[in-house]
């Protein structure tokens, strides 16, 4: 599909969904008046992140006092089946990230309430749910419909059926999903951010999410090298953060 065809298909899909008009308006502004916003401070933050980055294994040991080695063994069969589901999926979405970091974050605080933004295949969802099911907890997820790909039915496809009773998925942009989620649960043990990559979008969400993070709770943000939103957020609030290097990208983690 050409870029023009994709844009037209996405626009038509938006027009059929009045509940998504607020996000359509934001996207038009983002892609016209605020095009440079997505990469604001990128060079500064990549230098900052590289200077302090540690491995996922080091971060889990430092922050949670745990070893990550057992995760892949313990859930080998689940991960194998989920990998097969991804291979069979006819559309392309974001792949698996630092699953151990999410899982052990949930384990370390014995999480019962977790919120994430961004789902795609559902790898981060799977990591959180594998921990949450032990305590009959709930994962609240915010993810926009894949309007250009006719792929809504595949969102979260790697999550096994037995874990879905612990999962609530909200199919709107963060600015619509998060207020709905906060109405259901006002405080969270772990937050995982992986959605709107723009500087403004991140900064808004970081502030809203942080207010709902319990003391001692864990805040994780993927792809913090895209722009300086995470660095600026941490420095503005004097947060001591750990930076994890994973497959050439950076993840930010701190404990409230």
Mean pLDDT: 92
The geometry reads as globular
- Tell me the fraction of residues in β-strands, as a range: 15-25%
Low-confidence sequence ranges: none
Helix content: 40-55%
Strand order of the largest sheet: 1-7-8-6-5-2-3-4
Number of strands: 8
> Main beta sheet: strand number and arrangement?
8 strands, mixed
The number of helical runs is 11
What is the chain-wise order of helices and strands?
Answer: HHHEHHHHEHEEHEHEHEE
Rounded Rg: 18 Å
The computed structural class is alpha/beta
Distance linking N and C termini: 44 Å
Detailed description of the structure:
The chain is an alpha/beta fold and 256 residues long. 45% of the residues lie in helices and 17% in strands. It contains eleven helices and eight strands. The protein has helices at 3-15, 21-32, 42-52, 56-64, 70-74, 76-88, 99-108, 123-132, 174-184, 199-211, 229-237, and strands spanning 53-54, 113-117, 138-142, 167-170, 188-193, 213-221, 242-246, 249-255. An eight-stranded mixed beta sheet has the order 1-7-8-6-5-2-3-4, sandwiched between helices. β7 and β8 (249-255) form a beta hairpin. The mean pLDDT is 92.
């Amino acid at each position: 599909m050409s870029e023009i065809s994709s844009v037209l298909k996405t626009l038509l899909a938006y027009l059929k969904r009045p509940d998504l008009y607020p996000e359509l308006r934001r996207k038009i502004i983002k892609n016209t008046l605020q095009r440079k916003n997505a990469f604001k401070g990128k060079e500064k933050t990549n230098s900052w992140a590289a200077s302090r980055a540690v491995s996922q294994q080091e971060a889990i040991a430092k922050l949670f006092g745990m070893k990550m080695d057992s995760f892949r063994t313990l859930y080998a069969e689940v991960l194998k089946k989920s990998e097969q589901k991804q291979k069979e999926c006819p559309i392309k979405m974001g792949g698996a990230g630092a699953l151990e970091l999410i899982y052990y974050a949930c384990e370390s605080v014995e999480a019962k309430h977790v919120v994430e933004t961004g789902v795609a295949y559902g790898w981060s969802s799977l990591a959180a749910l594998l921990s949450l099911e032990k305590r009959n907890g709930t994962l609240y997820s915010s993810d926009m419909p894949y309007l250009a790909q006719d792929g809504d039915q595949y969102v979260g496809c790697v999550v096994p059926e037995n874990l879905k009773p612990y999962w609530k998925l909200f199919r709107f942009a963060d600015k619509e999903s998060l207020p709905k989620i906060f109405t259901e649960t006002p405080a969270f043990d772990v937050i995982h951010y992986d959605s709107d990559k723009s500087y403004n979008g991140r900064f808004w969400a970081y502030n809203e999410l942080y207010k709902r993070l319990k003391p001692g709770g864990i805040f994780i943000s993927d792809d913090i090298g895209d722009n300086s939103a995470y660095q600026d957020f941490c420095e503005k609030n004097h947060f001591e953060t750990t930076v994890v290097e994973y497959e050439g990208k950076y993840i930010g983690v701190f404990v409230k």
